User: Fold this.
Amino acid sequence: MSLKMKELPSSERPYEKLEIYGAKKLSNSELLAIIIKTGTKEETAVSVAQRILNLNKGKETNDLRFLQNISIEELCKIKGIGKVKAIQIIATAEIAKRIMMPLDVQDIQIKSSYDIVDLLMNELKYEQREIAKVILLNTKMTIQKIIDLSFGGTNFTMLDPKEVLHEAIKAGVPKIIVVHNHPSGNPHPSKNDIIVTKRLLEASRLLGIELLDHIIIAEKRM
Assistant:
């Protein structure tokens, strides 16, 4: 039977360790143990946390990004993790994700496609679903708004030109950039990406709206 948390030296308990040494000195399992708070009769919170981290099979040991896409049901399969703890973990992962997002995208001037990549890379490159966005720009290439268009599966996103251009017309903007991610990590456009881009380009020209780019974001590179 493993030691209970209270039986460990105070310098080895996650709460006390963070207070004494700072958060950077804690392991991933210790940080996660603070979120889940308690373990089971057989295991400390750190041991339970380590079993959660073991769900990330076949990937880098220290990569915590899988927590951004894990489900409540998957977490609840771990003994010692009920629905409340599962929700706490998912909420914490979402907070971490949102911290990486820019506070305000309005009034950011775009000078090249790389500005868009810098803006959205942290949000999109590790997503396991394909997410499409349209960036609405004024004549000075300043962002007016970024709109989520669609959420697809793991291999494709179907962009509807009507939906894209409706948002541009509604906002009264002359220029747009379309962005979507590839969960595979491959940044190269698929046949479907090329077809959709051509349709968007033709439709936008008819309406006098300039489609500046269709950017694909992936973990490897743009």
Observations:
- The chain has a mean pLDDT of 86.
